[in-house]
Amino acid sequence: MVSPSVVWFRDDLRIADNPALRAAVDRGEPIICLYVLEGDADGMRELGGAAKWWLHHSLDSLGERLRERGGALVLRRGRAADIVPAVVADASAGAVFWNRRYGGAEREIDAGIKTALRDDGVEVASFAASVLFEPWTVQTGSGTPYSVFTPFWRACQDLPAPRAPLPAPREVHAPSGAPDSDDLDAWGLLPTKPDWAGGLREAWEPGEPAALRRLKGFLYDDLGDYDRSRDEPAGEATSHLSPYLRWGEVSPYQVWHETVKNRGTGAHAASASRFLSEIGWREFACHTLYHFPDLATKNWRSGFDAFPWPRLNRAHLEAWQQGRTGVALVDAGMRELWHSGAMHNRVRMVTASYLIKNLMIDWRLGEQWFWDTLVDADGASNPFNWQWVAGSGADAAPYFRIFNPELQRKKFDAHDEYIRRWAPDHLDGDAPEPLVDLGDTRRQALAAYEDVKRAR
Fold it and tell me: Where do the annotations place FAD binding (predicted)?
């Protein structure tokens, strides 16, 4: 009797180096490839608009890749706790495989489904696929999570090297009577009225094939300049891999081993090490989320709860969102974000610091805006990095570190190439009037941080 396997895809929208898919192929039975759009059920966080755009195209690409191998992607929308067991029962499936995820709500959902299926006699197995090192394997000598990146990354590197990536299966046979699937277009993930995604289409090509091309292009063409030029927003020295990693169209194992293989010597080797440490920073964020599931809503450092946020100035928040602050680098970054769904990392830090420490607006409001507008909005990295800038998070920037956007512009965009592209009005004399005085607001922020110190 045929006993199909179910592979539940989540943030791993690829066929190469996909341990769950590999386990199903090795089991030897027909495979039901399932994706569930969970929405905000059971504590899950609703995807932002830019993320929905990416997800639509990534699922379309994954479906094509599976069809090429004899498979099919089944789409369902709703609570995974209802849908996954229903699909298993309807198909008389004998096994379910998925790759692990690390958010608190996600882990609870997965654990409940695993228990229910096993009680019904179904084989269930989960695998590591989105992090190089499982969160419970990296601990301090006293058995606690690391709160500082450098010793965390050193501890990771003392562990056995990450496993080699798994090859893509040549065939993924679907059962003869595959379950019904929703129509992807009917999910309404793409913007229509208005269609604001023109800049996203111009900047990005979602999907596993594009991810692998981007990885190869970066390692062969750009890696040598990474250490020297990574902080220059007008350049092309960064990898542009973050959305592909967020959606699992490329795995950290593939990135790790391909980078090591192309490490080279001298400056090239230094760039490779620097780039791998950025992969480590992503790991650190994932581990922090695992141990602190409320990362997007609560201060990691509870002492920061005493920060005296003033009453919200909505006009200032909207000006920041729209790139109308009157500060060239901030406005350029926010306009790049709205147009392309992305922003250079150096500029992300500057725009976040300006919102928090010059406009004195709660980091959670900035994090929510990035969540809605970034194609790489990640449940770990996005809040983790906002808390880092705010000073409330793990390995946080010192409270007195307040990015001066004008000095950052002179240092990292000395010829105004980035400003010329995204905020030319600042060069033509038509820039908005500055919302606040940078010096005055810096002093106010420092005074507020002193209040936090005294409250401890």
Answer: 226, 238-242, 275, 376-378
